[in-house]
C-alpha cells in the first residue's frame, strides 16, 4: 500500500513532477512553502533582539506538542532565543509535516518597523528537497 503524500507536499509534487529526479546535491535545494507573521512578537525575544535581527537569518522551528494552549504549536527560535510562534491559524500543516519528519527550515523573510507587532517579522518556511 502506497502512502498518501502529505498535504504540504502534494502541491509541490504537482509542480516538480515533470522535472525528473532531484540532483545528487538535493539537500541544498529549498522551496518556499509558507509565509507567516510571527505570533507573540511583543511577548518573547523578538522585541528585545530587534536591532540584531536580519532578513535572511536562519530560524529554527521547534514542535511543542505538549503546549497547553495549542497542541500544534511551532516555536520559532533565532540563535537559540525564542522569538515567538507560528500563528495558530497557520501552523497545522507545518506541525503535521514536522511530526512526519519532513525536512523543514525557516528564515526571516521580512522585517518591518510597523507599529503592529503582527507585521514586524515575517517567517519564510522552507522545504528541503
From TrEMBL:
Q: Which InterPro entries match?
A: HIRAN (IPR014905)
| Source organism, top-level taxon | Bacteria
Q: Which keywords describe this protein according to UniProt?
A: Hydrolase, Metal-binding, Signal
Q: One MF term from GO for this chain? A: zinc ion binding
The answer on whether this UniProt entry bears the keyword Iron reads: no
Q: Which Pfam families match?
A: HIRAN (PF08797)
Q: Where is the HIRAN domain?
A: 31-129
* Span of the signal peptide: 1-26
Q: Mind telling me what this protein is named?
A: HIRAN protein
Which species is this record about? Zoogloea dura
Starting at the broadest rank, the lineage of the source organism is: Bacteria, Pseudomonadati, Pseudomonadota, Betaproteobacteria, Rhodocyclales
Amino acid at each position: 500500500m502506497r502512502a498518501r503524500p502529505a498535504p504540504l507536499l502534494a502541491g509541490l509534487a504537482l509542480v516538480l513532477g515533470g522535472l525528473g529526479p532531484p540532483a545528487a546535491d538535493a539537500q541544498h535545494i529549498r522551496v518556499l512553502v509558507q509565509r507567516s507573521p510571527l505570533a507573540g512578537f511583543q511577548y518573547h525575544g523578538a522585541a528585545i533582539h530587534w536591532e540584531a535581527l536580519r532578513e535572511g537569518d536562519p530560524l529554527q522551528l521547534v514542535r511543542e506538542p505538549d503546549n497547553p494552549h495549542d497542541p500544534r504549536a511551532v516555536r520559532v527560535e533565532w540563535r537559540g532565543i525564542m522569538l515567538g510562534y507560528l500563528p495558530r491559524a497557520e501552523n497545522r500543516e507545518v506541525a503535521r509535516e514536522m511530526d512526519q519528519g519532513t525536512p523543514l527550515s525557516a528564515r526571516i523573510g521580512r522585517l518591518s518597523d510597523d507599529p503592529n507587532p503582527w507585521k514586524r517579522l515575517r517567517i519564510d518556511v522552507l522545504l528541503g528537497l
